[in-house]
Amino acid sequence: MPPTPRPLRKLGFLTIGLFDPADPARGHQSTLEIIELGERLGFDSAWVRHRHLQYGISSPVAVLAAASQRTRRIELGTAVTPLGWENPLRLAEDLATVDVLSGGRLNPGVSVGPPMHYDQVKHALYPDTGDSEDFGHERVRRLLDLVRGKPASDFSGVEGFEVFSDVVQPHSPGLGRRLWYGGGSLGSARWAGLHGMNFLTSSVVKAEDPEGPPDFAETQLALIREFRAHHPEGEAARVSQGLVVIPTDSATPEQRARYAEFAARRLPRTATPQGPARLLFAPDLVGTSAELAERLRADAAFREVEEVAFALPFTFAHEDYVQILTDMATKLGPALGWRPAG
User: Fold this and answer.
1) Residue 100 located in a structural domain
2) Range of 62's domain?
3) What is the number of structural domains in the chain?
4) How far apart are CA 15 and CA 277, in angstroms?
5) What are 253's strand-pairing partners?
6) What H or E segment, with its residue span, contains residue 88?
7) Which H or E element spans position 40?
8) Does the pLDDT value for residue 219 go beyond 70?
9) Is the pTM of this model over 0.70?
10) Which of 41, 66, 176, 308 sits at 20 to 30 Å (Cα–Cα) from 15?
């Protein structure tokens, strides 16, 4: 297999920030320590997932605010924040605040759609407007406009001793170019491109052709090309691929066996599209860095990107993440032509 025509320029990782409900502080501290380790190892970015009413990070903006004060270089992102749970104006304020605190390192990723288990949660989330909320792209457009400096109010100026702005404060001028859309369909890819966002594509996509073969890499490749075809920057538009990738170079025999069992347990779901939405899942990649580099170079979608945010398995222990990230940075990344930052 020939080398990728797009050398790997940015290497990142993604974590859910799992915690024990009996000791949530420990889990959150573990996430912050992992992000600090990522910076020391030269990773370009660290991303956290957004989980509501689960035992994972429910407030990534707060976690990344803390991470911004414990790091100096690594970019910090969300992959992704479901906007169905958010007020775009309030979120714009929080994102801009963390971006200022981080020195312009925030990469917010968002998605659309109703919240999971919406019928069970809507009375707590939107008690008066639950049946009329719009969970489509308009919510993203509102966030984009507010982050990019469009007025949020028709009033500005001095009132008494207070000064008011008509745009979100603080305003962080570069943040508007660092907003990402997490999408798994051609429509989402097209919308993100047309609105000048960056594009996050993960290990889950939609099989939209009922007649076509359920080939994950080819489906993901179609999303990337659809996005770039509609983006003002064309082929230069930023895309980040996020697969579950587990290098085993320095793993113990017990870790290797556990990693292999994890991937085998999840493999059956990759055979055919799942559920009414016809979701396609990518297989988890487990092996030595040399083996993983060969498999990634054979991946049609990987050959189209210059950035990745490899996902850490949700249920592993802290020491497992240390081993996986260390092998990624010292062995797998260099095998893909990447050089550590800093």
Assistant:
1) yes
2) 10-123+134-150+166-335
3) 1
4) 25
5) none
6) helix 88-102
7) helix 24-41
8) yes
9) yes
10) 176
